[in-house]
Each structure stands twice: as C-alpha cells, then as structure tokens.
Design a protein that fits this description.
The chain is α+β, with helices and mostly antiparallel strands and 171 residues long. The protein has one domain: Histidine kinase-like ATPase, C-terminal domain (Heat Shock Protein 90, 2-Layer Sandwich). Helix content is 37%, strand content 19%. The chain has six helices and five strands. A five-stranded antiparallel sheet has the order 1-2-3-5-4, with helices on one face. It starts with a strand and ends in an 11-residue tail after the last strand. The relative contact order is 0.21. The C terminus is likely disordered.
C-alpha cells in the first residue's frame, strides 16, 4: 500500500453507540491485522472512547465515577450530566489514518482535558482493586503507542502493522 488512508468519525455522548463506532473504526484493518490484534485494538478504542465521553465531554471526575459505582448510581449520574447545557451536543471526533507501517487513531473530546501524569499507580496494591481508573493502562498494554496532547483532551493510539499476512500470523 503506497497511499495513506484517512477518515473522520464523530460520535455523540450516547455510550450505547460506542460498540458500533469501534467496529466501524477497526473494519478497515481487519484484513491487515490478525484477530488477536483486532480484538486488542477494539478494546483500547472502546476504553478511550468511553473515557472521552464520560470524563471529557460529560466532565465526570474520577471521584464522581468511583462514588457513583460504589453506590450503584452511575446511570443516574450519566443522565444528570447529559442534561446539563454545557455538555449537551458535545461530540468526540476520531481521525483514523493508515499507512504502510501503522494505523493511528486520534480521539479528541470537547472537555477541559486532564493531566495524564496523575493517573492511579497500578503498581500500588490499593489501586489494583479500584472499580475504575484502569482503562488508560489497559490501552497502553494493547497498542504500541498512547500519547496525549498538552491539554489532555486528545489521545493518539498507534498500532504498528507487522507486515505478516493474516494467514501466517501467530494468534
């Protein structure tokens, strides 16, 4: 393949649309990546899109989500945040690009951003049992690069293409 391919996808704040959007985003590389890498990519994209909607566009903090999950009221929190005028109509924009050596997804929300250096330390035994706060770390383990812009409202995921034909790739 000599020419780069690029597309842009927009998704609103409805979490039920994430799965279909992820399928659409990974579809162009399903014949290029093996099944295991496609699954890893789908998982990483799902985590990042959910984060962009919940924490970015809806402004749900780590503590708010933690408390809502503990009290079994997360659905109520989502409804409240979706009803707020400042969050209404926000979208997440995903730019997909593919070249001979990699696929790249740039996910940008319309939130205020965050400082990725302040993520929970998953080596801390207390953090290991948290109900939330592991999505970024999971994504880092599943793709080759995870980078944030300075504001923290845009994440770039990169998956390198191995060059192996799907038929001979180890799964």
């Amino acid at each position: 393949m000599s020419k780069a391919v690029t597309s842009v996808t927009q998704i609103g704040n409805n979490l039920s649309n994430v799965s279909d959007t992820v399928d659409e985003l990974v579809n162009p590389v399903e014949g290029v990546l093996n099944e295991q890498d496609c699954y890893a990519l789908k998982t990483a994209l799902t985590e990042m899109l959910v984060n962009a909607i919940e924490h970015g566009n809806l402004g749900i903090t780590f503590e708010e989500k933690k408390m809502a999950l503990e009290s079994n009221s997360f659905g109520k929190l989502l409804v409240e945040k979706l009803a707020k005028a400042e969050q209404y109509g926000r979208e997440v924009v995903v730019t997909f690009s593919r070249n001979e050596s990699s696929v790249t997804y740039v996910i940008r929300d319309q939130g205020l951003g965050f400082d990725p250096s302040k993520l929970p330390d998953l080596d801390d035994p207390e953090s290991m049992w948290l109900e939330n706060g592991r999505g970024i770390q999971i994504s880092k383990a599943l793709v080759d690069e995870v980078r944030y812009n300075q504001t923290g409202n845009e994440v770039t995921l990169v998956k390198y293409l191995s060059g192996q034909p799907v038929e001979s790739a180890a799964v």
